[in-house]
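Input:
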Amino acid sequence: MLLYFCQRVAYVVGIVLVVSLLIFSITQIMPGNVAYVILGDFAPLEQIHALEEKLGFNDPWYVQYWRWLSQIARLDFGDSLIMERPIGPILWQAVANSAVLAVISIVLVAVIGIWLGVVSAVRHGKASDHVVSIGTYIVLAVPEFFWCIVLIVVFAGSLQWLPATGYTSMDEGFFVWASHLVLPVVALVMGLVAHVSRLTRSSMLEVMQSPYVVAARARGIPEARVIRGHALPNALLPTITVLAIDIGVLMGGMVVVETIFSYPGLGRLLIFGIQQLDLPLIQAAMMVVAVIYALANLLADVLYAFLNPRIRFGKAAHG
Amino acid sequence: MVDATTATPAATAAPPARRRRPWPATLVWGTAGIAAVLAFALVGAVWTPHPYDGMNISARFAAPSATYWLGTDEFGRDVLSRVMAGAHLSLFMGAFATFISLAVGVPLGLIAGYFRGLREEVIMRAVDVMISIPPIMLGLLILAVTTPDIWKSAGAVGLIYVPIIVRLTRGVTLELGAQEFIEAARARGERDWYILFVEILPNAWPPIIVEAALRVTFAILLGAALSFLGLGVQPPASDWGLMIAEGRPFLSQAPWIAIAPGVALVVTVILINLFGDGLRERLDPRLRQKGA
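Output:
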């Protein structure tokens, strides 16, 4: 198990390094950009060249890459070109804000998704199963940004129950804070709940027909205990892996949802950086996203191995 | 393509009644639905009830009525006409992106699954790296540094789904490569490329087609999301994603501007999903229970 864990960690470090190379390559594709953003579009060419020299853009790419990587590794992200402030504090605040959204969302996705999946598997073929199946089928077709629009029109527009956009800190009262979170969280979780519940339902149905569950029933064990004690633990294995993958989907969704709800998180910061062509900010935000994503995948692998003894010894973790 | 499945040794042993298997209901409805969507997009590309970019200042923010079925936007442009005119752009995003992921992913998957060894190792590790980047980030990474246009964002979306196609194709190729008719082809002394493209590929299509149908919907949704963020189709052209973005400032006074293209998007995706599920049932009954 320890060996497996070390292998996975080494693998993740490798992946992050390759991704960092990709992210770094942005500066190589348009190096002139940074100087132009700092000096303005109409700066004389000599000044542009002088600044590029000073910023080290004329060094070979591996020198630049190493310089950038060692800075990032020390968590020194440099200054934002547009905001003319160190990126670090801005970035960590955004990460913290996004983490609030992400943690609430993923917990809701796990609880509601698994619950719906189990209920519809247990009531296989009954009306409630059909309602859940058709409902999730439709929900899966709705993109996050359209959920946002619908939620804003209904709950912020017509009903006026909740604020349409923005964010307040907890200092202004718990309910004010929470009210700004409700719509973004709902928009984020809808599709994922549908995804998780469909997956849980199909793996639950598969497990419920397996010989050991039939045997448990034959021994006269009450159905509720068969479901909770025998079927569910095994049916949840694929769900756990998917939940970790869904963290990645969630981060993609957060880019859109945070932008629409003007929520000051990592996704909105990234889009802001892209719209303003703030290269250091783009790179820092993308790097943080990549690391979080890699850690989520690592978590999924380790959790999966922990729950499934067959993986601990074999090489079946990746196919 | 269906003929190719019956050509495998396993299928020739099946009773002839199998050929007459009726189409599943999902496939019938899905096909009809897709035909309707395509017709809608084709008509919209050449004819719309009002000019899609025709401004009418006296009819700004008009609610849905007999003249303007879905209302008008902030410039008095007919929303229905714009939804119709934008349809082919959204569909194009889905189709072109899927084409890219197939064109790149299928050959790589075939090579990895057939030749094994170093080539497989290199391809699959590259795939691992690509899969380790959150999907939308890969798109943003490409679009962040270049001026956005529809080809680029469709291409970016296509690249995002290459790893999934590679993994799938490799899996199918591994399975097929172990079968007797491949061994027979090798014994006949056929070249590797002949075996790959004439013997394996035709038999590998069914699961790939099914996956591709699913990818089209993901590509349409992701493409719309990119357009929505201003990284896809550029004004004055307008696909559904951009239309939703354009309607966003007016949600309280004229929600139909954003809702109409959104509903069009969702209905299209549901119909294509239906079609994909139907294909899955038709082409590969074993896959029916797998995943959502």
